[in-house]
């Protein structure tokens, strides 16, 4: 994310543009949650059904394409979801005390 922000911040081609930042890989929400629990090494997953009234408006699937960002500044995702979640979990495990002040 930081790389995408820096590239767009210094690029004339990015001026006045709106970009999506993503991997282009569809990720099921439950799979993302499983990655987080696995990386943290604890937690449990409880399934709560989507309310019927809201089911009608659930888009079900969403994939962020970053093709416009690739074309403008050459940015692409460097890590998979699993790698990014694991690196984030490691960082906070090492630096958690800094956030408890």
* Mean pLDDT rating: 91
Distance between termini? 26 Å
Largest sheet: none
Helix content: 40-55%
Order of helices and strands: HHHHH
Q: Could you say which overall geometry the principal axes of the C-alpha atoms support?
A: extended
Which residues form runs of ≥5 with pLDDT under 50? none
Tally of structural domains? 1
Rg, Å, rounded: 17 Å
How large a portion of the residues is in β-strands, by DSSP E? under 5%
Question: Structural class, please?
Answer: mainly alpha
Number of helices: 5
Summarize the entry for a quick read:
47% of the residues lie in helices and 0% in strands. It has 101 residues and is mostly helical. The protein has one domain (2-42, 60-99).
What does this structure look like?
The chain has 101 residues and is mainly alpha-helical. It has one domain (2-42, 60-99). It is 47% helix and 0% strand. The chain is built from 5 helices and no strands. The chain has helices at residues 2-10, 29-40, 52-55, 67-73, 81-95. Helix 2 packs parallel to helix 5 (81-95). The radius of gyration is 17 Å and the shape is extended.
